[in-house]
Amino acid sequence: MSTLQTPSGAPQGGPGPAAPAQAAGGRIVTPRPSVEPGRGPASEEGVVVKSRAENLSFHYGPVRALKGLNIEIREKRVTALIGPSGCGKTTFLRCFNRMHDLTPGTRYEGSIHLYPDDFDLVAKGVDPIEVRMRIGMVFQKPNPFPKTIFENVAYGLKVRGMRSNARIGEEVEKALRRAAIWDEVKDRLDSSGLSLSGGQQQRLCIARALATNPEILLFDEPTSALDPIATARIEELIAELRDQVTVIIVTHNMQQAARVSDYTAFMYLGELIEFDNTSKLFTNPSQKATEDYITGRYG
Amino acid sequence: MSAATTDEAIRRIRADVSRRKVLDQVFVVVGLLVMFAALLVLAVLFIDLVRTGAPRLNLDFLTQFPSRKAERAGILSAWVGTSLIMLTTAAITMPIGVAAAIYLEEYAPKNWLTAIIEINVTNLAGVPSIIYGLLALGLFVYQFQLGQSILTAGLTLSLLILPIVIVATREALRAVPRTIREAAYALGATRWEVTAHHVLPYSMGGILTGMIIGLSRAIGETAPLITIGALSFIAFLPQSPFTSEFPFVSFAWLTDSFTAMPIQMFNWVSRPDPKFQVNAAAAGAILLGMTLLMNGIAIWLRYRFRKRINW
Q: Of A77 and B72, which is predicted with more confidence?
């Protein structure tokens, strides 16, 4: 596997981080499937596409909240969704892990393909639980379980049937390290997750999601409830995660999108107005509406 | 603005605030009065019971069976009966009530059928207890042939407090924030896992409180027990739940006939001999003590469970 290279020399993380889990013989916690050349579709610049929404519409009862979105999510890149309140960015994000299925009377149209196996996340008959086993999420407000720090991170592993305490311990430590919170909590893994500060709680939630090795990690305005210092730490963390996992982040804060993301999608009234490299979109948007929004003329 | 007008404005603000705060203080006084009135009535009642029953409030009273002689009569069969009935009621109500509440709150689709069920559950809490007694007489005693047993009493009182437990449990389940449920779902948990691993444990304090409030109601019920044919003179104990042979526990006591504290009291109160009034008062004090103890446990449980959880 390690001899295989991604096409066009794209800075591909490769199966590196996933390899140890595989070597340990984990049957249940599957490492992210490594992308074989020519299998996952490549985007224009040669970066591997992790997911592609095609003509995706979403309905809350009679309300059509998303109107035929088409977008490509690049693997191991950070994609930001921006737009004014009510534009559907969070609605779009929550399609990726089928969170809308918890609300009765919702309906998807179109498709979201997850590569490399071309699995349609929103197809009828696809179990949302299967989708959520592969796609992780971090929420707007830190929402640790009122359990110990250890149990918070271990929960996803237990749901996946991991029973060996030694392995769970290893994976919990690994996840807490990846979420850059290990040093702060290593001496008190048995205290409640709620005893942490807001920023620490959010990083604990990121560790909880990372422990399950998600293929895509969704962030729904992860810093909107945090102070600037905690926000900066989360942003740093997202930048570090870039090499390991595909990230989609919804944010109200345009500076944040500019700081953390490689690609940015601007949404307005349930439509995707513009999608481009972050630097291009912020410096030289091709749409008038995008320009108006990023220069603060509305929203 | 000159200094004079500023002073004037500040004086006016102060006068206004203190005038509006008068209502605040009036309410404090009224609230304290009402609260003390309620507590005073209870305290006077309790003290009166203890004073009247004082001659009989001793260990003998707890270890003797009822007797025709007032000074030799005790409440052994009554408090054992009450304890066993409470145990049976709790064992029946807890799983049924919690399961019903979980179904209604977490699983049931929101439609007219569940709306009707919800309204009726709430209404059932207001049905007079004698009605439950009549239902139990027809259903458990005659139809199912369960006899005038501890099991029948437990089932009857379960019916009585199920609505209370269901409503309290639903409140407790609803208090678990949506964000916590979403966190568990997002990790790939099934609905059952979300309920069993998260929602239920986090609401346990509220559920147990509701359970004990229900049991506190049941412990004093007399009418339904009399209706199903509880005896007031029982000079033996139910069979022991523990046996010397494998499997060491026995449920034979469920089918034994019984008496209970409120029935024993009712029986003594209705006797002409004034000496029995003393017994009734003593039994009343003990029953009240049992209820207060249960409520105390409820408060302690709530405190323990909620200490860890502050959303």
A: A77
Of chain B, the end-to-end C-alpha distance in Å amounts to: 48
Structure token digits, residue B129: 């207890």
Can you tell me the distance from the alpha carbon of B25 to that of B87, in angstroms, rounded to the nearest whole number?
A: 46
Contact A99, B182 (CB under 8 A): yes
Query: What's the DSSP call for residue B246?
Result: T
Q: Which residues of B touch A205 (CB under 8 A)?
A: 183
Q: And the tokens for A244? A: 């390991």
Contact B183 A145 (CB under 8 A): yes
Q: How far apart are CA B275 and CA A277, in angstroms?
A: 95
List, for residues B191-225, the tens digit of each pLDDT value: 999 999 999 999 988 898 899 889 988 888 888 88
> From CA B224, how far away is CA B49, in angstroms rounded?
24
CA angle B231, B232, B233 (to 5 degrees): 95
Please give the model's pTM, rounded to 2 decimal places. Answer: 0.80
Q: Which domains does chain A have, with CATH numbers?
A: 40-294 (3.40.50.300)
Residue of chain A minimizing CA distance to B309: A146
Domain boundaries, chain B: 1-56, 59-308
Q: Homologous superfamily of B59-308 in CATH? A: MetI-like (1.10.3720.10)
Q: What is the pLDDT of residues B147-176, one digit of tens each?
A: 788 888 899 999 999 999 999 999 999 999
Q: Mutating which of B106, B179, B187, B305 best tests the A interface, going by the most A Cβ atoms within 10 A?
A: B187
ipTM: 0.83
Other C-beta atoms lying within 10 Å of the C-beta of residue B182: 19
Residue A218's H or E segment, with its range, is strand A216-220
Position B2 confidence tier, pLDDT thresholds 50, 70, 90: low
Q: List the beta bridge partners of residue A59.
A: A64, A107
If contacts are CB pairs under 8 Å, which of residues 101-120 in chain B contact chain A? 109-110
Number of Cβ atoms within 10 Å of the Cβ of A241? 21
B:190-209 residues touching chain A, CB 8 A cutoff? 190, 193, 197-198, 202
